[in-house]
Amino acid sequence: MDRRTFVHTAGAAAVAAASSPRVLFASANPFQPNPADGWRVFEVTTSVELSKTSSATRVWLPLPSIEASDWIQQRGSLWSGNATRLSIEREARYGTGMLLASWGSGQESPRLEMKSVFATRNRSIDLSRPGQVAALDKASSRLYTMATEMLPTDGIVKKTALDITKGSKTDVEKAKAIYDWIVENTQRNPKTKGCGTGDIKGMLETGNLSGKCADLNALYVGLARAAGLPARDVYGIRVADSKFGYKSLGKSGDISKAQHCRAEVWLSGFGWVPVDPADVRKVVLEEKPGLSLKDDIVQAARQTLFGSWEMNWLGYNFGHDLRLPGSKGPVVPFLMYPQGENAEGRFDSLDPDSFRYKITSREISSSAT
Question: Which of 166, 194, 242, 281 is deepest in the core (most CB within 10 A)?
Fold first, then answer.
């Protein structure tokens, strides 16, 4: 039997068993777009189709969990499928939301589909003009300066951060010094599996400063925290081609392998500031052959990506070191890929063809930017 339900993921966690679907949304029609002032509305669909189960099977899909009135607004999610049980889970520390689906042994053709609709618009902060921004609350300041398993803030990380920011007098100067250091000293490694793991201590100890977004932007976050600046990774996925001419910085249609981690740093007088040094290195490697940091197209990206994001991208969550509810497997360092497991172990989330999931995106509406 096929069941459907709407869930509005920005509120309290909801539970929906397949035998008792619920309808929860913020407005009369959460899928009715209302773009204005540069807003664009997207629908992202994640589909999972598994083989007949030989044991109890669980799948976790990342739910869009970030609400920020100036750049991203969640419109709600719709699920359908034949799961024996389905629930909306929310991890307490970071507020990371996920859709958990379960099937029993012997289930023919397990399937799950989730459609999420969100509105977004480009972010850009003028860092030359501080404003009257309230201080970050103490709980958030503690959370986003603390060490995690992959983001230690002592030892070589602390030493490197202090060396980079030596002589910097303001938060902006510290944040920019770390950004420039990442851009100038790291490389994007096309052989890195997925988006990387974010083992920043290992990167610094070995001197191998290569990887992908979850490595390079995690290095930014860890160094910023070690320098006393609240910072966080933002895990998500690209949903549209770039409107600024960068073929390497966008993806539309089938986005099953378009996951991308960004970063934010909290700066006094500005609040949360978007940064993305990893995408500067992506432009160098992928935009066209033979580019270096001296080329105009790279310099433009470098200037833009300290303080701005093109929002052809969906942010899922800020979570680190997450234990998947109901899982017997290991903690995941972050959640931006579908996850699954059965009695034989965890599925390979980086191989959608083997795992048998597909993620697609389409733009519903947009206004003039």
Answer: 281
